[in-house]
Structure formats: structure tokens, C-alpha cells
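Lab intake sheet, docking and co-folding queue.

SAMPLE TYPE: protein with bound small molecule
LIGAND NAME: adenosine-5'-triphosphate
LIGAND FORMAT: SMILES
REQUESTED OUTPUT: full 3D complex as C-alpha cells
PRIORITY: normal
SUBMITTED BY: R.K., bench team

The fields below were copied directly from the construct record.
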Amino acid sequence: MVGDSLFEQRIRADRASLETLASRISPLMARNETAALRSQMIAAGGELEGRVLLLDRNGKVQLDSYGEMQGERLQYPEIANILVKGQNVDYGVHEMDSGRALDTSHLLFTRRTNASWVGYCTAGVVHASDIIGVLLLVSPVQEMMQNVYQLQDQMAVILVAVAAAALICSWIFSRVITRPIAGLTRGIRQMSKGDFSSRVKVRGSGEMRQLALAFNSMSEKLETLDQSRNQFVSNASHELKTPLATMKIMIESLIYQPDMDKNLRTEFMTDINSEIDRLSAIVSDLLTLVQMDSQNVKLTRENLSIAQLVKENAHRLQPIADQKGQKIILSLADPCDMYADRNKLNQVIYNLMENAVKYTQAGGQVKVTLQRQGRDARLTVADNGPGIPKESLPHIFDRFYRVDKARSREKGGTGLGLSIVHQLVLLHGGSIRVESEEGSGASFIVELPLHQGS
Ligand SMILES: Nc1ncnc2c1ncn2[C@@H]1O[C@H](COP(=O)(O)OP(=O)(O)OP(=O)(O)O)[C@@H](O)[C@H]1O
Ligand SMILES: [Mg+2]
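RESULT FIELD (auto-filled):
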């Protein structure tokens, strides 16, 4: 395109000057004023830096600014286009073969200018709307052609450089983009095989970094979930195995000692019965937890008073407390009416109060306080029992967690009570925390929003 426009410019300039010259000399030619013609043409040849020839209607040279070719007949397409086809002007570029004389004019021309590319510009000399001759301007275009070729070479070099740069850039980009994606794919594949330990390298900035961070946090969560599920299953099996093993021993004794003392037999049967109770309690606790995990648990709400629930549970636990010489003190400042699930809240209050009674030594006391705090009901179950050691506090709401495994199991506990309480409180949109110092009792504080969704 640049070459074309260079040519265009040159051609336009040559044509214009040749046309002016043609119109200037046409009256001279018509009047056959040879001397004036010659001087005009020599002047023009110098001006246009080329050789100017004037041909007659038959293509025969009449005048040559170099004064060499008069009377010779020239045949070039540019001349024929004017004389035969009737064009006003024409232009053509010819390559000279310096080793071979194509024809005399070429030879002459190249000898003088040493050019291997020449341009032929022709213009018709018109007089009284008749073509009476042709002006031919032969000028070197070597420099221009060289420029064009140089330009072409430069363009080729630039093109190669740009292509190489584009290749390098795309390679770098593809590495920057595809590498992390390949890493992620590998991680996802590993995960789909059940290995949640895979993490990807967090590199760079922007979207890819976010993606890597999101992937890592997802795999971390899945890993914890997987571990806690495995833990849960192994804990559950362990809890179920103990009563089953005890029952098996007792039943085998009954089978292999048919003449066992009747009282001992009844004692065994009673023990087996209580183990069955324990088993069914564990199973129902597990079912409750699994149900809450599946997240399709529904609350059956009704109008109730938390104070009333506390009173009912205190009544239920009173016989056990009496047996241990414990006091249950209620301080219910507000009825705390609420639209909630009666059974589930009952379970919360019962589990907390039962723990307090169960783990507090004989002669101790359990204090239940209920008050309104802004939009919340605040229930505190406090005792003056052994308390919970500091290192156990973060795990107290974990499934199957017991502070003193042996002693707690002796008391019939499986360590599921508080985790159920925690889940149920969350279901009601509330929160639970524990405050305790070893040796000086424990307080469980539950806060429940009284007006859900308002
Ligand atoms: N009021 C308390 N004082 C001292 N320790 C407590 C108290 N409440 C709970 N704990 C400790 O927390 C552990 C977990 O309690 P949680 O109610 O979850 O289980 P559990 O009572 O052992 O069994 P479950 O309630 O399922 O029958 C208990 O084993 C006990 O060691
Ligand atoms: Mg308990």
C-alpha cells in the first residue's frame, strides 16, 4: 500500500507536467516550429530530470531532448495506448536488463543514467481535437523502486518480529493462564477420587488468585467435614459396641448357667434391660443429630412460655436432685413468651439442667435464671459442681465429647447432649456459650430471640 501510494504520487506529478507540456507544444507542433519545439523540450527534459521525446502520429521520433533518436520508430504499449486507444495519458514502469540490450532507447537511456528501473509516461499532443503526436518522458525510478523494496524488506523484518513477539506473548499468557487451571483440574480430579488433602499454589493476583483461594478453602472444609464424619461414625460404633458387649457377656452367662440363682438372674435381666435403654437413647440421639444435619428439620412452632418449660423440667429432675441432696433454685424474672418448638426447647432445657444435676456433687446446687434482655430471652443454668477444665471448653459442644470419659460413661452419658443442645439453639436463631472455672462450677448461657423474623 505504501509502495502504491509512492507510485501514485510520482505518476500524478509526471502526468501533470507532461500534460502541461503537451498543451504548450501542440500549437508549435501544428505550425511545425521545430526550433522552438526543441528548446522547449530540452528545457522540459532538464526540469523533469529525464529524457523527453516527441513522436508523430505514426510513432516515429520527431524530436529527442538528448538529440540522438530522431527518425527512429518506437513501439511501447504506453505509446500505443495513446495513438490506438485514444487515451490522454499513460504510465508504465520497465525493468532494464543491464546485461542485455532490449532495444536502442533502453540501451541509450541506461548508459546515461545507469538506471535499471525506468518509468515511461506518455501524453497525447492534441490539436483541434485530433491527436497529432505523443510526448514520451523516460525518467529513472530506480530510487523509488529501491525505496519500495527497502520498505518491503523492512516490512518483512517487522512482520517477523511482530509474529515472534505475538508467539512469545501468547506462550507466556498461556502458561500464566493454563498452568494454574491445569493445577486446579489436577486438584479437582484428586478430590473426586476422595482425596481431600489436595491444595493448589496461590500465585499472581486477580481472578486466578481468587479462584485458587476459593478452591483451597473449599478443599479444606471438605477435608474437615470428611474427617469429622469419619470420627462421628467411629465414635458412634464405639458407643454402640460397649453396651452390646456387656449384654453379650450377660446373656452368655444366662445361657451357660441354666441353674443360676433366681435373684442373680433377675439382676442380670435388669442390667440387660438398662443397657437396652441406653442403646435406644444413643440411637435416638444419633437420629436427632442426623436429622438436623440433613437440614430438612422443621420446627413445629406454638405459643409457649420458657419460664413454664423451666418449671416443668425442674419438677422432672427434682427426685434425682432430692436423692443427691441438691437444691434447684429458679429465678424466673419474666415468663418469656415465645413462638417456638416446644419439644425442641424442652430438650435444650432438660439436657442443660440434667447435666448440672448429674455432674454436681451431692449437696450442691443448681440455679436456673431467666430474664429478658432487649429482644432476647436469656437463660442461664449454673451449678457449683466440678466445672469444666479450660482445655475442654472449646470442645464441649462437640459430638461424643466428654471431659472425663470413664466417669461420664458411668453416669450413662454419651457426650451427645450438648451438641444436640447447640444445634437446637442455632435452629431457633439463638446462641449458646459456657463459662466455667475448674472446681467452681459451670454456667451455660442461652440467648434466644423472642420474636423470630420480626
Ligand atoms: N454442668 C456441668 N458441669 C461439669 N461438666 C459438665 C457439665 N455439663 C457437661 N459437662 C461435661 O461435658 C460433657 C459433655 O456433656 P454432654 O451433655 O454433651 O454429654 P453427656 O452428659 O456425657 O452425655 P448425654 O448428655 O448425651 O447423656 C460431659 O461428659 C461432662 O464431662
Ligand atoms: Mg448430658
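REVIEWER NOTE: The CA atoms of residues 68 and 338 lie 124 Å apart.
SIGN-OFF: pending second check by T.M.
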